[in-house]
Amino acid sequence: MKKVRITVKKTARYDDLIEEYENPIEHACGMRVGDTFTANGWEKPEGFCDSAWDTVSPFVMALSHGAEDFYDGWMKNRRSAMISCNDGFRPVSFLLETLDEEAE
After folding, report:
1. Could you tell me the pLDDT band of residue 30, with boundaries at 50, 70 and 90?
2. Is pTM, for the whole model, over 0.85?
3. CA 3, CA 38: separation in Å to the nearest integer?
4. Cα(72)–Cα(49) distance, rounded to whole angstroms?
5. Whole-number pLDDT of residue 29
6. Residue ranges per structural domain of the chain
């Protein structure tokens, strides 16, 4: 299995939607642009958001097992994917890239 690097590329926050629809919460997303994580197959990296992992993990697993060229040429790098978490109030876009080193 290959390791997969996960890099936070963009974050957004929709205050109008938060104000109108979200119940107050103490801790929201702590992801910051430039944060990087390394996944070993299906194992969620330390400190990675549980909800975001639910969204990206199928792509991480596929990349770690050699999948390439998602959606017939969608990405310039065939061994990568751009995936956003499912938080409609604070979406985060992640770049997933297969690394050449093998997972331990």
Report:
1. confident
2. yes
3. 7
4. 29
5. 81
6. 2-102
